[in-house]
Amino acid sequence: MKILYKELTTVASFEGKQIPPLAELLKSRVHSSASSGSPLAPDIFVDQYGFIVESSDVIHQAAPVQSKSDHQKWTQMLAQWDTLSQDRKQKIKQRLRKSVPNHLRGNVWKAFADVSKIKPKLMEEYPELCAKESSFSSQIHLDLSRSLPKHVLFQDSDGKGQKSLFNALKAYSVLDTNVGYCQGMGFICAVFLLYMSEKDAFVMLYRIIKDYEMAGLFQPGFPLLFKCFFVHESLLETWLPR
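Predicted structure:
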């Protein structure tokens, strides 16, 4: 079987030892194929994001590839993130509307979320959180295969993707007992895992739910979700009355 994808260079673009599980998976498959001399999965095709498609024709219909200048602009901005002037930050919205280069999305998301400021403390706690028992473990296991089921990273129940997803969700359920676990959290965390390491995905999940006050979307009864429904319906009545 052979996996087709457009951005193998993504694997080399992540710095540090903690590369995203998807990059790790693609890298290991390519290396194993090269050493064995056998082709990779000829009956499986994936698009540039890792989602399984029916044929290689769909791959060529994927989103446009960013130019080299886009990559350079975002790389430079990330390198100077902490010292950007307000004038420079005003340009971020314009660049976001043009899209972020796919292989830089994880780094851009972490920069916007100021992950570096809270990461050290959570990194110290993470191994301990993973080692603790959670009353949600069984439910998390049941939902693993339902999170991005068409993505190559989450196809194998014993693979890196599902293991990382389980660890991050379980750790969060132990850390935040007011929220615990809700199936909707799995989809968010799974997307993070496509672009960053397991630990970074856990920190991003914490940032969104705790610091950005989205806990009500996942707590029993979904209190914030119903508020969002109300706002949505009110906006429709105001701007699209018919």
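Summary: The first helix runs from residue 21 to 36.
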